[in-house]
Write a structure and sequence with these properties.
about 170 residues; 3 helices; about 30% helix
């Protein structure tokens, strides 16, 4: 259970970094970000709380810096002190291909972000995933994302393949 705001920020930053990396890998941009916080509905006697907020981006982006900035703003909007949070997350919406989006006349994404993120992604591929990350992300992450409802990857992970034994075939 999470009660401290700093721990929630750390997790939201980690999730936003993961989703931004996935967008870049798939050559996509997002135009909206949802952040949600949820207490444990099965803990009787504790105050229950579920809240989601959506923030639209000013421009299509896959920048870890921009997605993280907006996700933290969203988390601040819905955070309620005194709640024991069970779950927190970041979801992206309005996904578009990275090579086809409407440019803004004034403003837009910092052009240096893409150069920096290319180097960071290349280094992380070379020396190990998430070795280089934002300062707001967990450095000594002792928690792991829950993956008990993760869909099997039959086409990309040998261990997920189903084994069939047929004695009388």
């Amino acid at each position: 259970m999470l009660t401290e705001k700093a721990n929630l920020k750390e997790r939201i930053s980690t999730f936003s970094g993961t989703v931004a990396k996935k967008l870049r890998n798939d050559k996509l941009h997002t135009n909206a970000i949802d952040v949600f916080l949820m207490s444990n509905p099965f803990r009787r006697g504790l105050e229950q709380y579920v809240k989601t907020v959506r923030i639209r981006t000013d421009f299509p982006t896959n920048s870890t810096f921009e997605i993280n900035r907006l996700a933290i703003i969203a988390m601040e909007m819905i955070y309620k002190p005194g709640i024991s949070y069970k779950k927190a997350g970041v979801i992206v919406h309005s996904i578009t291909p990275a090579d086809s989006f409407q440019m803004k006349i004034f403003g837009g994404e910092n052009p240096n972000h893409q150069h920096i993120l290319k180097v960071v992604d290349r280094l992380n591929r070379k020396i190990g995933d998430t070795k280089i990350r934002l300062g707001s992300q967990s450095l000594k992450r002792k928690w792991k994302m829950r993956r008990e409802r993760l869909s099997p990857s039959y086409t990309s992970r040998w261990s997920d393949l189903i084994t069939v034994n047929c004695e009388n075939c």
